[in-house]
Amino acid sequence: MSDNIAVTGFGVICSIGTNAQECFESLVNKRTGIDNIKYLETVHKDAFKLGEVKRSNEELAEMLGLTSIEGVSRTTLLAMVAAKEAQELAIQNNGTKSRTGIVSSTTVGGMDVTEQNYLKKTKDYSYLYSHPCGDSTKKVAELISATDYYTTLNTACSSGTNALIHGVRLLKYKVLDRVIVGGVDALTMFTLNGFNSLKILDQDFCKPFDAGRKGLNLAEGAGYVVLERADEVDKSYCKVSGFANANDAYHQTASSPDGEGAYLSMNEALDMSGLNPEQIDYINVHGTGTDNNDLSEGTAINRIFGIGKVPPFSSTKSYTGHTLAAAAGIEAVFSVMSIVNNVIYPNLNFKTPIEGLNMVPNTEVLKDKAVKHVLSNSFGFGGNNSTVIFSE
Amino acid sequence: MDIYIKSSDAISAQLSFEKGLPEYFESGEESFYNCVKPEYKKYISPKLLRRMSPIIRNGVACSLSVLKQAGIEQPDAIVVGTALGCLRDTTSFLTQLIEEKEELPNPTHFIQSTHNTIAGQIALLLKCHNYNFTFSQMHNSFETALLDAQMLILDGKASNVLVGGVDEMSETTYDLIKGLDCYKGTKPGEGAGFFVLSREESVVKFEGVRIINSDKVDFEKELKDMGLELDEVDLVIGGNNQEDEAGYMDFCSVIGNKPYLWYKPFVGEYGTASSFAMWMACKVIEEQKVPECWMKNRIASEKYNKVLIYNKVGNEHSLMLMTKNKV
Amino acid sequence: MSELKEELKAKLIEQLNLEDFEVSDIEDNDPLFADEGLALDSIDALEIIVLLEKEYGIKLDDPKKGKDIMQSVQTLADFIEKNRK
């Protein structure tokens, strides 16, 4: 199935912009979205930096033309904005399709609503209806008329790519004619305190692939791409040429020193695409900026591409922060825009290479070279590692 | 390509685990159902057990049981469905967080609260590097996992897939949800149902799963798409919680007078309860008999070769079809 | 000191759900992380960091620095004696 699935639309909202164009402008102008906490209710307001979407829930509802946001989580609102943008673009390119569905992903679901009500000790528990991961997906499907099939992946931070993998098979086995795939997560006290308890948050700006990295900046957002069978579309942006999911089977949260899971997922995705490693023009790395992830991922990349032969790579989490289940969706959109515009994005906040890896991320906006094949990594808790390759 | 169910097991409020369909019921005096606890140590070392909440224990033990039955050390893929994930750990972390005003909550609950903890733990225990997915789509969590497993086999990416559904219910959760409309007329419950879906021939054949999000369902058409006429169905397993449940009227009138089993009054309502129904279907097809206590109507059949499972919550429906191989 | 060590053992058993252990099963010098000792792992190490901060007011932000401190109940107790407020 190496080149029969086409990307026909994309949409994104995150800390660097509320649509694809805004995000692209931020990427090529080196504007980070990570900042002091403005929207999230937490006692840690002064302690951490986050990649917040710079819109209140009311403002997001206004963007969507919703009159009431009663029982609608921030997760749902973010997903709606990005999925709607993606779907509209696909319709503009190829008209409507008879069977349309959505495969989304989220780690916290409606936790933003749950925790605020828990905090206020609300006695009417109907707020819990928005809690399940599947609730946001259902609401988005209804908003954008994608109810022929919908489901939600939750494999932590690799979820978005896994949503894409399930989506491709839904097209291949004709369950659907068009599928919107990606992920979403809103910032919550739950995740901020969770990651803080793991001691993997940098209180300053995260520094992916830098020797002095101290951890990640948590963030929120949503990103979706629209997939259709390539032989049934007039206009598309690129193709999905390869993908894979593999398990590190090493530790509940940490990555193995040799990056076995990451190695296996990249290797299998390359295999499926029929590409040689040297044909990859850009790697959008997972690159969270934690000590463990970057070392393990770097080791795996070296195993695949060879030391000193790694193509230009960057972690766009230095702009957006780590958006958890949204990360792979957002980075899929960035990868598609990299191919469409022939641009390779820089990795911000990099100074010193990690000892022993011999890897230096790309730190400038590269516009002088054709970008034909982009590989994007996304890894999550539970040793869950996924890779997708987009090709011109 | 034909797909088979090589092995199946279920942990539930009834004595189902490592057994056939029980002939009698454990009394269900409580206001919600909890699972009968298996001897976990048979499958999981104490070192790992100490950190596992019931949902993880049940998911892992049930998985290891079906793998053992199928004689498989490493499945080619692990696909889990869970509607609400690891609720106890989520509740513990959230409660502590709020009560202690975000001061130093314990990391273990956060780590274990992730929905994919169960699938991740299975991989870790088996040292299995293969495909590892977790779906969470409320009442269709198990069904979408099952569809994914089916497509993986069709795609030639797997010969044996471990697939299952698992959810948990605690006292704390029950107190929160008991007043909600969606649980009216039901007894909330929990359980784990796991299967090895395989290309290799065995007694039970998996014919397919349909997921329909709509107010109306054309059952005859859906069955036809699965390659079966309504008349051919020998047995129906329905997700009714009560006698004459309004939401099941359409289905019951289409299905007519066929042997009809139900299970939710005895194991409870939960997001992945239909995985228990699939286990029932496997057992009935293998054993060719139905203990009377599971019958909703008193109609019996001479053979149980084609079993249809129907589940419905709101406007979300699912149909699953299992048949006896080579009859 | 011996009181602190007994207290620590009880807290470890409770916090880490060491169901199969009693206070009397743990020797002061038993290795915490080796299989022949308590066979703890990195998640337990994070829990011990939380325990140090909550119970004894000692903040240890870099988990890597915990390695020497967390060798045994003895080394933990020594560290607490020296640093507690």
UniProtKB/TrEMBL annotation, chain A:
Could you list this entry's UniProt keywords, alphabetically sorted: Transferase
Please give the superkingdom of this protein's source. Bacteria
Gene3D superfamilies (UniProt xref): 3.40.47.10
Q: Which residues form the Ketosynthase family 3 (KS3) domain?
A: 2-392
The GO annotation for biological process reads:
fatty acid biosynthetic process
Q: Which PROSITE patterns match?
A: KS3_2 (PS52004)
What's any one GO cellular component for it?
cytosol
Q: Which family does it belong to?
A: Belongs to the thiolase-like superfamily. Beta-ketoacyl-ACP synthases family.
Protein name (record) = Beta-ketoacyl-[acyl-carrier-protein] synthase family protein
Q: Which organism is it from?
A: Plebeiibacterium marinum
From TrEMBL, chain B:
| Pfam families the UniProt entry points to | Ketoacyl-synt_2
Q: Which InterPro entries match?
A: Ketoacyl_synth_N (IPR014030), Thiolase-like (IPR016039)
Tell me which residues make up the Beta-ketoacyl synthase-like N-terminal domain.
44-175
A GO MF label: acyltransferase activity
The UniProt transmembrane annotation reads none
Q: Which domain of life is it from?
A: Bacteria
| Protein name from the UniProt record | Beta-ketoacyl synthase chain length factor
Please name the source species. Plebeiibacterium marinum
From TrEMBL, chain C:
Q: Which SUPFAM superfamilies has this protein been placed in?
A: ACP-like
| InterPro entries to which the protein is assigned, alphabetical | ACP-like_sf, PP-bd_ACP
Which PROSITE patterns does this entry report, sorted A to Z? CARRIER (PS50075)
**Domain Carrier per the UniProt entry, residue ranges:** 2-84
Q: Which Pfam families match?
A: PP-binding
User: What is the protein name for this chain?
Assistant: Phosphopantetheine-binding protein
Q: Which organism is it from?
A: Plebeiibacterium marinum
Tell me the lineage of the source organism: Bacteria, Pseudomonadati, Bacteroidota, Bacteroidia, Marinilabiliales
